[in-house]
Amino acid sequence: MAGLREIQSRIKSIQDTRKITNAMYMISSTKMKKAKLALESTEPYFYTLQSTIARILRHLPEMEHMYFEKPEVNRTKIGLLVITGDKGLAGAYNHNILNLAQKFLDNAENHVKLFVVGELGRQYFTARNIPIEENFRYTVQSPNFNRARWISEKILDQYRDGELDEVHVIYTRMENSMQSVPEDKMLLPIERPALAHIPADVHQEGFFLIPSPEEAVDTIIPNYITGFIYGALVQAFYTVHNARMVAMEAATNNADELLRDLKIMYNRARQAAITQEITEVCSGAKAQRAKREAKNNTEHRV
Fold first, then answer.
1. CB under 8 Å to 249, separation ≥6 — which residues?
2. CA 216 to CA 59: how far, in whole Å?
3. pLDDT grade, residue 145 (50/70/90)?
4. Which of 120, 115, 122 is nearest to 82 (CA)?
5. Please, what is the average pLDDT of the chain?
6. Between the N and C ends of the chain, which has fewer C-beta atoms within 10 Å?
7. Cα 187 from Cα 67, distance rounded (Å)
8. How confident is the model at residue 2 (pLDDT cuts 50, 70, 90)?
9. In sequence order, what are the residues at sequence separation of 6 or more whose Cβ sits closer than 8 angstroms to the Cβ of residue 125?
10. Which secondary-structure segment (H or E) carries 82?
11. Strand, helix or coil at 193?
12. Alpha carbon 136 to chain centroid, angstroms
């Protein structure tokens, strides 16, 4: 059995670690709530843009534009935006994202340009000598619309110049309050929906784009891309703190169990030490008594 001093040292070490994990749990919980509010405040704008694009494609199915999918075009130059965390201690969050990104790169038959958000993603691809087209630093810890616009402009410039034919983003989407899912979403070109059969007797809404459909799309699509990237950044920020909160809660619970076991072990060791001391005192007293009795018997014989 370990000594009392060794057990006390382990208890103190675990108590210090528990304070850290509990503090990180509280910090992640606060940041997660902040991210949730930011996401909820932007969702109406983002969903309105999505609805507008769907209406344009529904009413103008034959419209040709660089932002819309052309089935007959072979897309060979692909841009991949990967959103990871800046720090660890978040369970399998970063592993799931990087695993999905690696599968994308392994299965890609064409040239892929890599755009990375997050320090852990940069370290991962650099360690494997995978070239990075653009590394967006200091974005994960503080997602905002200006940084999302900066990222979207970098990607859109290459798309407009013909350097990219297709753009994907890999991020973590919050499925529900307990589960997050890594997702690969194709941003550009925007897929055309299947044409729905509308009966002749059904009244359709009037739809006009002023000054022209092309100019309207040139304004709407960049804002949609920026909004989607901002939503992906906020969702990533939300999910990484949710994952870290779960990991820190599990670590705190494990620390509590270890402390409980160590305190039982300490009490047993302490009780054993007290019992040993009592035994030694009793044995010493018994030896002294036997010694005195032997001395008295010797003097009595004399």
1. 25
2. 14
3. confident
4. 115
5. 80
6. C
7. 9
8. low
9. 114, 116, 132
10. strand 77-83
11. coil
12. 17
Cα separation of 66 and 44, whole Å?
26
The token pair at 173 is: 């989407």
Q: Measuring CA to CA, which residue among 273, 301, 276 is closest to residue 5?
A: 273
- CA gap 269, 302 in Å, rounded: 49
* CA separation for the pair 121, 275 (Å, rounded): 58
Instruction: Please name which of 162, 223, 187 lies closest in space to residue 81, comparing C-alpha atoms.
Output: 187
Residue 110's Cα: distance from chain center in Å?
Answer: 28
Q: Give the 3-state secondary structure of residue 90.
A: coil
Residue 206's pLDDT is 63
Q: Are strands 111-117 and 134-136 parallel, antiparallel or unpaired?
A: parallel
Q: Which residues pair with 183 in a beta bridge?
A: 171
Q: What is the pLDDT of residues 54-97, one digit of tens each?
A: 777 777 777 777 888 777 677 788 899 999 888 777 777 888 88
Q: What is the pLDDT of residues 89-125, one digit of tens each?
A: 777 788 888 899 888 888 877 788 899 988 888 889 9
Q: Summarize pLDDT for 241-289 with one digit per residue, the tens.
A: 777 888 888 888 888 888 888 888 888 888 877 887 888 788 777 877 7
DSSP letter assigned to residue 170: E
The two counts, helices (H) then strands (E), for the chain are: 5, 5
Which helix (H) or strand (E) segment is 113 a member of? Answer: strand 111-117
Residues with Cβ within 8 Å of 78's Cβ and at least 6 positions away in sequence, in order, are 108, 110, 111, 112, 113, 164, 165, 166, 167, 168
CB atoms within 10 A of CB 246: 17
Pairwise CA distance, residues 242 & 31, whole Å: 9
DSSP string computed for 159-174: HHTTS-SEEEEEEEEE
Cα of first residue to Cα of last residue in the chain, in angstroms, is: 51
